[in-house]
Structures are given as structure tokens and as C-alpha cells.
Amino acid sequence: MLCVCSWGHTIINCFNTKIMRPSNPPEIKALFILHIALLAGQVAFALIALLVGYIRDFSSIASWQSYSTPLIILCISIGIAGYLGGNILFRKKLDALNENSHSLSEKFNNYRAACIMRWAMLEFPVLFCIIFFFVTDNFILLIVAAALILLFITTRPSLQKAASDLRVSETEIEQMNTGGAL
Questions:
Q1: Does the reported pTM lie above 0.85?
Q2: Contact, 105 vs 176, CB < 8 A?
Q3: Mind spelling out the 3-state secondary structure of the chain?
Q4: Distance CA 53, CA 134 (A)
Q5: How sure is the predictor about 68, in pLDDT bands with cuts at 50, 70 and 90?
Q6: What is the per-residue pLDDT for 177?
Q7: Which residues contact 136 (CB under 8 A, 6 or more apart)?
């Protein structure tokens, strides 16, 4: 099939279904939107803290300056604990979920809860770092928060990840809402 763009150029195979990726089912889209919303909140909070710090010329409260190094160690420790703890709890919940024979919709609801728990355990250290960056104006804390945000991005949900985690095929998840025999 040929398509013509607004400038009159011909584009070949713009609707080739072999090239186009199939759309994700609504359950995966909802998880993805939730993940993006949580990510956007973290990034917006970091940008606001940075902007307010810039407006006040990065003049922190002097009483917090002596705690700069311990706060960096604390933020890194909480970040590692949040990331590892979230992943361990996520895996334990998935193992328990996959051992029991639930319907796919029940499995997916529990999977959604496991994802939210994992993201919450990773979001807390990010917000913690940003708050202490705001108080101390120590950019190392903002760098730690940025690294944790990058780790948060790696937990983005997808059809492939959900199918692998739930030990089902992608087709089964796609058919979950269409009334397939599941």
C-alpha cells in the first residue's frame, strides 16, 4: 500500500502489518500509563526542586551542610535498599502467583499490584533524595536521584515482560479482554 505525506512524497509500505508493531492490550497500556505518570511526577519534582534552588541561588540552610556526607551515604543506601527490596518482593510475589493456578485476569491483577509495589519501593528513595537535595543544595543527591530514576525507567512494563513474568504467551494476554478461552 502506498501513502502520500502532506508534502506530496510517496511513502511505501506505511501500513505494512509486518513492519507495524501490534498495539498492546488495554491492561498493558494502563500499566504503562501508570508507570509514565509516576515517572513524570519524579522528574517534575526534581525539576521544581532544581528551579527553586536556582531562584534562591542555591543557598542552603547552613545547619545541613555538616550532614552532607552522611546524607549522601544515607540516600545511596536507601536507593540500593529500595531497588533491591522492590525487586526481591516483586520476584517473590511473582513466584507465589505462578505457583497457584489462578485465572489469567486474577494473575494480571496480582501482577499489577506487584508492579505498583515495586515502583513505590523505588520511588520513595528518589523523592527522599530530591527532598534532601532541596534542603542541602548538594548536587550529588540530585545525581543519585537521577540514577534511581534511570533504574525506574528500566522497570517499564511491556507485553513481553508481562508474558514472561506471568509465564503465559503474549497472545493469551492480548486475548484476555476479547473473551478468549482463558
A1: no
A2: yes
A3: CEEECCCCCEEECCCCCCCCCCCCCHHHHHHHHHHHHHHHHHHHHHHHHHHHHHHCCCCCCHHHHCCHHHHHHHHHHHHHHHHHHHHHHHHHHHHHHHHCCCCHHHHHHHHHHHHHHHHHHHHHHHHHHHHHHHHHCCHHHHHHHHHHHHHHHCCCCCHHHHHHHHCCCHHHHHCCCCCCCC
A4: 7
A5: confident
A6: 66
A7: 60, 61, 64, 65, 67, 68, 71
